[in-house]
Amino acid sequence: RKEVEQDPGPFNVPEGATVAFNCTYSNSASQSFFWYRQDCRKEPKLLMSVYSSGNEDGRFTAQLNRASQYISLLIRDSKLSDSATYLCVFDTGTYKYIFGTGTRLKVLA
Amino acid sequence: SQTIHQWPATLVQPVGSPLSLECTVEGTSNPNLYWYRQAAGRGLQLLFYSVGIGQISSEVPQNLSASRPQDRQFILSSKKLLLSDSGFYLCAWSTGTGELFFGEGSRLTVL
User: Fold this and answer.
1) A46: chain B residues, CB-CB within 8 Å
2) CA-CA distance, B25 to B28, in Å (whole number)?
């Protein structure tokens, strides 16, 4: 099983839509989980951390399911500016951070 | 506040030439430091990480090397570049318990 699996997309959605991404991981020792956003030809930037109880930041909701070993990101009321690649990230318990290949989102007018 | 600087931003090098990319972090001490590479249209590949001065862990065997001569300085090098070394190189730091913070990246084209 791959260390992390993420649907590459692209997800093409109209403005205002709700879209969800999942990311599965194989390392049960992982303790920290994140979603990053990467714009074209730029460095990744932290979107939000993912906590066991789930967390929300405005239109964005992140959840962790340890039993099934996946994290999810929900974006409500999509904006054109949400168009980007979304990367899931988790630690391996030994200082290393592993990135998913990213899911491309295009929000259409 | 903490900042991370990475340079050069862009470089074009011939095959077989040497490489040196430099990264420095300010505003924190004893950070964990990382080098990632992103090939065009691909995900981030961890190349090296360091948890202290002189301590380098290599993730992928290749013709690249890394050094950490000072607490907040991380250098990526190559003696002879290959075409396959082209990509977007990203330096990052963390405290070890939280998220990664990235530099703006160095875009390398090997011709």
Assistant:
1) 99-101
2) 7
